[in-house]
Amino acid sequence: MTEPVALRAIGVSKRFGEVRANRDATLTVKRGEIHALVGENGAGKSTLMRILAGMYPPDGGRVEVNGKDVTGWSTREAIAAGVGMVHQHFMLVPTLTVAENLVLGQELTKGLQLDRAAAESAVRDLCERTGLKVDPSRLVSDLSVGEAQRVEILKVLYRGAKILILDEPTAVLSPPEITELWRVLRRLTSEGGTVVLITHKLDEVMEASSSITVMRAGATVGEVLTAETTPAGIAKMMVGRDVRLATVVLEDEKTGRREDEITGIPAPGLGAGSASPSLSPAALSVSRLVVSSSRKPNEVDDISFDVKSGEILGIAGVEGNGQTELIEAIAGLRKAASGSITIGGKDVGELSVRERAELGLSHIPEDRHRRGLVLDYSIGDNLILGLQHRFSSGAGVLQGEQVQSNAQGQIREFDIRPPSATLPARSLSGGNQQKIVIAREMRGREYSVLLASQPTRGVDVGAIEFIHEQLRAARASGKGVLLVSADLIEVLSLADRVAVMYEGKIVATLSRAEATPELVGEYMTGATRTGEHRAGGAR
Amino acid sequence: MSQLNESIPRPGADRTSRLPASVTRLISALLPPFTALLIAAVVGDILILSFGQSPADVFVLLIEGTWGNAYGLGQVIYKATTLTFTGLSVALALRAGLFNIGAEGQLAMGGFCAAVVGLLLPAGTPAVLAVPLCLAGAAIGGASVASVPGVLKARFGASEVIVTIMVNFITLALLNWLIATKLNVAESLHTPEIHAGAVPRLSSVVDAFAGSAANFVLVVALAAAAYAAWYLFRTRAGYDLRAVGLQPEAAEYGGVKVGRVWLRAMLLAGAMAGLGGTNYVLGYKQYYEEGFAAGAGFLGIAVALVGRNHPFGVVIAALLFATLSQGGLAVNAVVPKQMVDVLTAVVIIAVATSVPEVQRLLKSVRGGGK
């Protein structure tokens, strides 16, 4: 409590056009602590941090670092003062080595040449000191996402950062990698460093941080010590009301007893509704599917599984293990090299995206910014993407009034904000953008099979709750749902069965009862490749 | 967007946000071209001063020689007609994410085909039949040239930029050869006069336009702009086309066959540019002549960019560039007419750097993508 303040923001405000990203945002971070900055998407966390890191000046308010007023400083000054930010998206040059990336901009030179040996040894030194292990001579393009993230952190530390700001650092990491990250951050703080962690994952907040600042709608709404609060308490501050969190089933390490930590809702698959799934017909059936990419001939490597009507089959796995290719092959966006895909008993291998959709396939794509939405199209136009033919006359003229009334209805039912059909999708927050996709795919059409890929990525707590309810409702109404998520808790809280993908294969299929976070986590890293759960088929 | 709902209104803080969205959009669409014009005017001033002339006098001369009298206005309208077609051609392709550098060749082929149809028809064919046939010939001629890059792009992903440039050379060389050896009137580089399909000049109705080349192909140009706007914003095909241009992967996800849309967009773009050839062939000279509209295809790129790829913006931008072009002749006595070429170039550069489509293209050329 007596530690001096490393970072302070007082009454910071910032607006971008019509959007007020920050208003009266306040933050106090003490030296040597891991401070979590939480809030829904669009709450203004990243903006506040970028102001602190000198990326843009605030419209009002004051920023202090180590007690000195630095309001409106530049990134250069921020780096010189030891404030470094690790961004959500990697900013590395893939064709350069780790060491080259680190020294970029302040190269050690030998005459006109880069002194590679000196750079590598300097980097090796830093790795040693921080415990962030990565080979400095490897090319960044060869690194896993976890390693790339380490390089990002090293890059900031190499520039002498004492105050480290991490923007959603765990989005792409597997559970063991996350644990490793916490270990490194604790080591940094124990040596006098300070860490600000931007996140909206409450379990991470509880595990990693010592104090918490909660933001909502651009303003700071609460500052608490982690030890004195609960996930439900934080969630309530984030959204300003009580939230039914995803039924996070965690295993108590000491007793081995399971408990529904936050609410009393029984884990799905254990209660009613999953009485005898083996009797239901397969809504979606995938058999010996192989999918290639330009990088790899077997991105999806001989996979077979069924999704039955009225069940959610969850696919867990660290991203980049073939999930994207699997989903795209089923949706018709990518050609399968071999194997078959049937929907409702009909082979769809040769059918187009539209024909598969007409057969009852609905698809929430993993990347709404790339696939799920045309960002410059209005909300109304996005709500008919993939349904254009239903909203046009025989002569191919769009029926403007139908598009409008469809948009009005969906906006009202799904509480899409702001409720204006003519606004471009780009101007909405992540959660509201995802609501457009959900509304279109789950209400805008008849379907029997739903592909839900990372359905809550980058979405705030309130919207996560809503989307999970929609997925459960889809199961209850007899739809077959294939859920792919990098978020293990999400898979475990929704799925009736869990299949784990690793390097293009399904390495295990577990019933909900068997699937503990530890076991699934192990399979996700490819650690356990033997045992009774190893399976090629998941029928 | 809960910020918006919860924000406390502050006096005077929200002036811009109170304007309706359509107005904000219009302002943001018009700002770059007007800034560009302003920059061009400043550069023009400096140039004129460097020739020892008064900028005010020269600009007055420029306006008088264009919009100041019926003949000048007629010439502006004539030039703007061709530029509207080529501008629409580039704009339609760009809406689908394709950079059509081939409007030049498509325009020439369109004019040539219109002339051939006009020559094949027997003399005395009624205009109601002959003109549409010639227009159709021009559209098909332009589209056939554009089909080459269209097919190569759709099937093999070949860069339409490179293919359209190459096809320009091939098309122009082919036409020059045909004109020089087969179809020309002796001692000239143009075809005989067409037997049917001539479009009357505006001066046949309004005497004041006498002497200017402005003709009723203008009506076709305006109809083409209206059609393009309707097609882009009111039809399913237009919805698909714009989606492909903005986000091909999202379009693909939405069941759109991207290659097919690329081909369709190129054919439409080629047809538009091809129709541009009729302005000269049917409306002005009644024959095809080598190099009849040199540069109009390339200037169409500038027209599309300044017009922000909107068909109505294209019409306005076409008038602007036509004015500059005609104005160059008007001020030639005082300052070299190349000064106006410099101004045109300044407008193009200033607009090009501010238009999102171009920034996106530059990014994709640099291999950045995302």
Structure description:
With 539 residues, chain A is of the alpha/beta class. Chain A is built from 17 helices and 25 strands. In chain A, helix 13 (400-414) packs across helix 14 and helix 14 (430-442) packs parallel to helix 15 (461-476). The longest helix of chain A is centred in the middle third of the chain and has 16 residues, at 175-190. The radius of gyration of chain A is 24 Å and the shape is globular. Chain B is globular and about 60 Å long. Chain B has a single domain, classed as Orthogonal Bundle (ABC transporter involved in vitamin B12 uptake, BtuC). Helices cover 73% and strands 0% of the residues of chain B. By secondary structure, chain B is an all-alpha fold. At the A-B interface, strand 2, helix 10 and helix 11 of A face helix 1, helix 10 and helix 11 of B.
Largest sheet of chain B: none
Q: In angstroms, what separates the terminal alpha carbons of chain B?
A: 26 Å
Strand order, sheet with most strands of chain A: 6-9-10-3-11-12
- Please count the beta strands of chain B (DSSP E, at least 2 residues each): 0
Question: Helix fraction of chain B?
Answer: over 70%
Beta content of chain A: 25-35%
Order of helices and strands of chain B: HHHHHHHHHHHHHHHH
Radius of gyration of chain A: 24 Å
Q: So, CATH architecture of the largest domain in chain A?
A: 3-Layer(aba) Sandwich
- Spatial separation of the terminal alpha carbons of chain A: 56 Å
Shape of chain B: globular
Helix content of chain A: 25-40%
Query: What's the CATH topology label of the largest domain in chain A?
Result: Rossmann fold
The CATH class of chain B turns out to be Mainly Alpha
Secondary-structure class of chain B: mainly alpha
Largest sheet of chain A: 6 strands, mixed
The low-confidence parts of chain B are: 1-17
Q: CATH topology of chain B, anyone?
A: ABC transporter involved in vitamin B12 uptake, BtuC
